[in-house]
Amino acid sequence: MKHWILTLLFLPALASFAADTPAPAAADAGWVALVDGKSATTQAHFTAFGEKAFPAGGWTVEADGSLHGHGGPDLISKESYGDFEMELEWKVAPGGNSGVFYRIAPMAGEPIYENAFECQVYGPENMAKCHPVYRPGALYNLFGNETLATIKPVGEWNTVRIEAKGGHLVHWMNGVKVVDARLDSPAYAAKLARSKFAKVAGYGAQKAGPIGLQSDGGEVWYRNVRIRGI
Hints:
The chain has helices at 2-20, 39-45, 186-194, and strands at residues 32-35, 46-48, 59-61, 67-69, 75-81, 84-92, 97-102, 117-122, 158-165, 168-173, 176-182, 209-213, 220-229. It has 230 residues and is an alpha+beta fold. It is globular, with a radius of gyration of 22 Å.
């Protein structure tokens, strides 16, 4: 009987505690899937760069749910994103060379990479001899990935997280932060001046732009690509 009385006494307190305790946020709150194993999803979000429709060839959604690039044109999202975080996985065949672009500012008659930030996707034969600014996860031609241990062997899946918030760009490669760049810093100004983008007027000034997926050389696979604003 005493146990029942104690339980009845504590029930109001427990109810009050539950009411005052916020429910945990859903893990997928705010995320938008761009590549999720369904052709309809990918085609709803991307077109061929410079075109109005998804390319007829060169990109295939495989049985395992991955988006396989095999010589197709660059893909560009229909939506633009400013401050965001994006997660994805990729792998390449030996020698594969591609990239994930963001805040793209298309220039008439120029390829997608001329005015965009790029998270490098690459599978060179000798990673140790590859310059850090060309290694996977690097902010291409600007801030390198100095840690070889963050890169999985060619043919294995790598996970990437990109965060862009104002002038702060961060890349994670397989759970390790490999790029932390501030666009208003002397370091960025110096690296930009030495880069291939030095002659591009207003490079990197855009505060928002589409996302791009590249299949530049060799074969590349992307999967579980998702994005949300922050």
